[in-house]
Amino acid sequence: MTTEPTILLSGTDPDLPRDLPAGIGRYSRLREMARGGTGLLRSAFDPVTGRTVAIKSLLPEMKKDRAERRRMLREARITSQLQHPNTVPVYDIGDDEADGIYFVMKRISGENLFEILKRIARGDEETIKRFPTLRRIEILIGACQALAYAHARGVIHRDVKPENIWVGNFGEVILLDWGVAKVWGHADDNEPIRQSVLKPRVDPDHEGSAEQRMTTLTGGGQRPGTPLYMSPEQVDGNRGIDERSDIFSAGVCLYELLAIREPFRGATIDETFDNIKRKQVPLPSERSPERDIPEGADAITDRCIAKHPSHRYQSMRALISDLRDLR
């Protein structure tokens, strides 16, 4: 985890810098934070505002790819228009001569929910104490609040998972990565879709087993999202998905944070997809009876991960209401 920088008088009093370069050249102290198949995330310092920011751009080999440029620009615009306490603020969007399309966001300190769940699975006492079951449910509620806001504005996230739920050092919860979001009125056929990755995950009871050695999904961009958290309609490639697909993915996250187990993981990607579409998994309290699972959580989880969308919660607000009632 990183700490928030201290505000110093020396950083507030100087005059504005003169003759600032355009684009990313305006920023200094660039440092790589993470990279994916097409994108690069860097931290940087903005001499005008005096704050540390995060800059997302394309990898050098992708910066001239028209589809990837369009996808990056869409992600930047969606993120910037979703102004909510549980989404990340966007400060600037631009097209840099050297780096191509980029956008500048608030630099968030903290860690993602998956890292927290990993430590709980390993029996880390400090993490278990800091993040009891009800606190983990509160974190998911924060992400669901962002989703409810997005759904009201015609945006479906399509990649809800613990890695995209960021928990700040001061308790804030941010839902990240709107790179494969669906916007109502946009035909999916014309949307650039990035490939998804099924990352190896460790089951504490079967560490190192064959089931954990999962491979990368190279589905040719046919299924936006991450396999372990996809809804059945995503697996089927249904292009008419709606907010109930995000509700399913949120339900998978709920199952995982309650049971500290993934509900649908198979030995292969195809088996994982088949489990999502057909397997009736044990309830969280049955899967992990030793965990402190609140009464009523099983029913909420089961309703979220129903195979058919009509059997799930029909709105994120209804799910949030029931989660808040858990004790």
Q: What do you see in this structure?
A:
The chain is an alpha+beta fold. The chain folds into 2 domains: 9-106, Phosphorylase Kinase, domain 1; 110-324, Transferase(Phosphotransferase), domain 1 (Orthogonal Bundle), CATH 1.10.510.10. It is built from 10 helices and 10 strands. The protein has helices at 66-81, 113-121, 125-130, 133-152, 232-235, 243-259, 269-278, 284-287, 297-304, 316-324; strands spanning 28-35, 39-46, 51-58, 90-96, 100-106, 110-112, 155-156, 165-168, 173-175, 182-183. The strands form 3 sheets. Strands 1-2-3-5-4 form a 5-stranded antiparallel sheet, covered by helices on one side. Strands 6-8-9 form a 3-stranded antiparallel sheet. The longest helix is centred in the middle third of the chain and has 20 residues, at 133-152. The protein starts with 27 loop residues before the first strand and ends with a helix. 36% of the residues are buried. It comes from Rubripirellula reticaptiva. Its EC number is 2.7.11.1. GO terms for molecular function: ATP binding; protein serine/threonine kinase activity. Residues 200-210 have a biased composition (Basic and acidic residues). Residues 200-228 are annotated as: Disordered.
